[in-house]
Design a protein that fits this description.
Elements lengths: L1 E4 L43 E6 L2 E2 L1 E4 L2 H4 L12 H28 L5 E2 L9 E5 L1 H7 L12 E6 L3 E6 L2 H14 L3 E2 L7 E2 L5 E5 L1 E6 L4 E2 L8 H6 L3 E2 L14 H6 L4 E4 L2 E7 L4 H17 L4 E3 L12 H4 L8 E2 L4 E2 L2 H16 L6 E6 L16 E5 L18 H14 L3 E3 L16 H13 L2 E4 L7 H14 L7 H13 L3 H17 L10 H4 L2 H17 L3 H28 L6 H18 L16 H23 L9 E7 L21 E3 L24 E10 L9 E4 L2 E9 L2 E3 L1 E2 L10 E2 L2 E4 L3 E4 L7 E10 L10 E2 L3
Parallel strand pairs: 4-5, 4-6, 6-8, 13-23, 17-20, 20-21, 21-22, 22-23
Antiparallel strand pairs: 1-12, 2-3, 2-11, 7-8, 7-12, 9-10, 13-14, 15-16, 18-19, 24-25, 24-26, 26-34, 27-33, 28-29, 28-32, 28-34, 28-35, 30-31
Helix pairs in contact: 2-4, 7-9, 11-12, 12-13, 13-14, 14-16, 16-17, 17-18, 18-19
Length: 809
């Protein structure tokens, strides 16, 4: 936070600034300041402090202009122009902040704080001037921040208190700065998350602080908080439009009339996508944007392409690529960033002739992740770094795991070429919401690096909630507002204020979980790597710490806060039990455990709705977490339970398989499936516990353009008795990522699409699916004695999870 100060900080300051508003030093706000109302303070106010309340009597009054407190200034409906909506939203923010100021000062001191628009001449109460009323008394704010977010907090023993800013947002920030210094905290949504101190004598030290947040926008993508929580934690700011809508600016009719605008691959026009390097295409996009701005002006427009990997091999587009071409290692594709920048720069220039202040959000994503090698970045274009293909839980400074050190190169590269950047962090281990994931080490390390590289907009995406991400959420909120706060101080503030008597075991719990994430050499996304991270020993220690915390709680609120985490851990324990059973091919309880998990999640989601915990209401009533659970594990678990009930096992489950990566064409691995092939030097992997990511193939895929190969051959053998007469035998594969081509005793086994599925009865060379089971009839190929099994797998498409090949027993 940039600051200019003309007085001593209420408690302490790591750097002290004097009167010059142009001073570029940074004043550091004390994190744990109680702003002078600690219980040991003298009863009478000293020369350096102002008394606001004493023994149940308010000594102050809030003076806010009438227009600030007006309830509704404009009627808002779905056709209301965008800028009117923004103005009304900002006014509501300021008004509600003033109401909070009165409410929380009253709660702290046990008094009632009055709000008025005028102060009588004989009123001897200390005035707290808001917005324009403060500026009339104390003069200009004296600090500016892009977006008009500068603010000033004045505490003057003679003239009163001033809380005001360059805009409604700045005034709101000033109000919550005062409350923050008084010890007010909102650690999570709802009253369960707020910590408000109480004192009979309320004082605050004299000060004059001119301040500004580190970023223009701070948010949490998804339905993770209510408006009150967002406002009180000073989230929000200048919205940057960044949706995947670049394709919508060109109509199908335009593409029909201009067929050379379409992308062409292998001489064929593509159904989706158009050529970004053409000047006439850029002009068409710009003209469509101007039409939209003419109809309803808004300060930000998205130039973000659709949510997909962009085809790279159009010969006309390739002519404009830099030499040498840039490879995107995480996406496994050639970079198209320079092509996108050609389009975006032309659009910004053309639209800027009429609307010079519009800013453009442009996602740096998949194979347009890396900064441009040749093209400049227009000052009004804000690259939105969205590292979807990168590791989620390890810091970008760690050099020994897939992708993450490229992320730091990418952040620093964009920071060098763009005046401002945005960062769209992935604040979850994609598509899995059950595991606790505090992001302590990750964001403590990454956020300072991101801020150093011109980050002005911070928006992590999440699917989980406060029950498993509270420390990370809160760290990001504080660090992107106060960039020089130490993460350990922020966390200590959280532990002691929020958990009280249970602070020590709760801090130990969250750090224990964080270590499990970062110390395991497992990089797969979602829950596929959990068996290596959350071992029985790790889970047992987590349970012991939560039980200890429950026992140490001294208040109802402390108990409820710990109980939320206790119930979260219990849900995750059930999740891990299913993973352990599946990994052991113990299918007896999978169906009942699956239904218990679903029912418990629904119950907790309803119970903790106010806390925005346990799933989010997307993908219908079931929620997005339930949706992804069913997609990734539900099909396999249900089918495993059905197989267990319907069939008798013949032999033992095959869990450990020898494997070998095939970097060449598939036919070169034909000898590898022969029963007598010597695979003695092949490594082994557990097909559920070990992912392609953990065995060194996180980014491996089959791609003809790059020459990379995502082919893997698995081998296993076992001795079987003869089949009972009249019985048939099936090889069941619990889950795959990609295709599976099966050989038994060296003979290829075709895959028959089962009844109830589309194309039932169709005979295919191999099974292809994602997180789905497959069944092969192997009756005629089994023999009494030693039997050999080989499975060729192929991953044709990279996802951000690092999975591949066999993923089930």
């Amino acid at each position: 936070m940039h600051a200019v100060s003309s007085s001593k900080h209420p408690i302490t300051a790591r750097k002290c600034l004097m009167n010059d508003p142009s001073n570029s030093w940074i004043a550091i706000l004390a994190l744990l300041a109680f702003a002078g109302f600690a219980h040991g303070m003298a009863a009478s106010g000293g020369a350096g402090e102002v008394r606001l309340a004493e023994h149940g009597r308010a000594l102050t009054v809030i003076v806010a202009p009438a227009e600030v407190m007006q309830w509704e200034a404009a009627e808002i409906h779905r056709h209301t122009p965008h800028m009117i909506r923004l103005a009304e939203r900002s006014r509501h923010l300021q008004r509600d902040s003033v109401l909070d100021l009165a409410n929380y000062l009253g709660r702290i001191s046990g008094t009632t704080m009055e709000i008025t628009d005028t102060l009588a001449a004989d009123d001897d109460r200390i005035p707290i001037y808001i917005a324009g009323a403060a500026e009339e008394i104390f003069g200009p704010v004296g600090i500016s921040k892009a977006g008009k977010f500068g603010f000033r907090v004045v505490v003057d023993g003679r003239r009163g208190i001033g809380l005001y800013g360059e805009s409604e947002y700045g005034t709101s920030y000033a109000i919550y700065e005062l409350l923050h210094r008084m010890g007010c905290r909102w650690f999570m949504p709802s009253s369960l998350g707020e910590v408000i101190p109480e004192t009979s004598t309320l004082t605050i030290d004299v000060m004059d602080q001119r301040l500004a947040p580190a970023t223009e926008f701070r948010g949490i993508q998804g339905r993770t908080a209510d408006r009150d929580f967002l406002r009180r934690n000073r989230l929000g700011g200048n919205h940057l439009e960044q949706r995947h809508i670049l394709g919508s600016y060109i109509t199908e009719e335009q593409l029909e009339a201009n067929p050379d605008w379409r992308l062409h691959i292998d001489g064929r026009p593509q159904r989706r996508g158009y050529r970004w390097t053409r000047e006439d295409v850029a002009h068409a996009v710009a003209d469509r944007i101007i039409e939209r701005l003419d109809a309803d002006y808004q300060p930000s427009i998205s130039l973000s392409p659709e949510d997909r990997v962009v085809p790279t091999e159009d010969p006309e587009e390739m002519k404009h690529d830099p030499e040498p071409r840039v490879w995107e290692p995480a996406a496994g594709r050639w970079s198209v960033t320079d092509r996108l920048m050609m389009l975006a720069n032309r659009v910004a220039e053309r639209v800027g002739e009429k609307y010079p202040d519009v800013i453009y959000g442009m996602l740096a994503y998949v194979n347009f992740n890396m900064p441009p090698a040749r093209e400049p970045v227009h000052p009004n274009i804000v690259p939105v770094i969205a590292p979807i293909d990168f590791n989620r839980h390890h810091p970008m400074t760690w050099q020994d795991h897939p992708n993450e050190f490229w992320l730091r190169d990418m952040v620093e590269g964009w920071g060098k070429v763009a005046e401002r950047v945005a960062y769209y962090a992935y604040g979850m281990n994609l598509a899995e919401i059950t595991a606790p994931n505090p992001f302590i080490t990750k964001w403590s390390t990454d956020i300072p690096i991101i801020l150093e590289n011109n980050c002005a907009f911070w928006t992590p995406e999440t699917m989980g909630g406060w029950e498993n991400m509270l420390p990370g959420f809160y760290l990001s909120i504080r660090m992107t507002f106060y960039p020089d706060e130490k993460p350990e101080d922020i966390l200590q503030d959280l532990w002691t204020r929020f958990y009280g008597a249970a602070a020590e075991p709760m801090a130990a719990y969250w750090h224990h979980i964080d270590r499990a994430w970062i110390e395991t050499r497992e990089y797969a996304g979602s829950g596929f790597g959990y068996l290596r991270m959350f071992t029985p020993d790790v889970m047992a220690e987590a349970r012991a710490l939560i039980d200890q915390a429950l026992a140490q709680c001294e208040t109802i609120d402390e108990y409820r806060r710990v109980k939320l985490i206790d119930e979260s851990l219990a849900l995750f324990e059930l999740f891990m039990k299913m993973r352990e059973d599946f990994a052991a091919a113990d299918f007896r309880n999978l169906e009942t455990d699956l239904e218990e998990w679903r029912g418990t999640l629904a119950h907790l989601r309803n119970r903790y709705r106010e806390q925005y915990s346990f799933d989010t209401p997307r993908h219908g009533a079931a929620g997005i977490g339930r949706h992804y659970f069913d997609y990734q594990w539900g099909n396999a678990y249900k089918d495993a339970a059905r197989m267990n009930q319907t069939y008798a096992r013949h032999g033992r489950p095959m869990l450990e398989w020898k494997w070998k990566h095939n970097p060449d064409a598939e036919e070169t691995s034909r000898p590898w499936v022969a029963p007598d092939y010597d695979a003695g030097d092949w490594p082994s992997k557990h097909v559920v516990r070990d992912t392609w990511s953990s065995i060194g193939h996180h980014n491996t895929l089959t791609d003809q353009a790059s020459g990379a190969s995502g082919r893997m051959v698995y081998r296993a053998s076992q001795r079987l008795r003869a089949l009972p007469e009249g019985k048939r035998a099936y090889l069941w594969i619990g889950s795959t990522d990609g295709s599976a081509k099966v050989y038994v005793n060296g003979e290829h086994v075709p895959y028959v699409v089962p009844d109830g599925q589309r194309h039932a009865g169709e005979i295919r060379d191999r099974f292809t699916g994602y997180c789905r089971p497959a069944k092969y009839d192997v009756t005629d190929l089994l023999k009494n004695g030693d039997n050999h099994f080989a499975i060729k797998t192929e991953r044709l498409r990279l996802n951000e999870l690092g999975t591949g090949g066999l993923m089930g027993p």
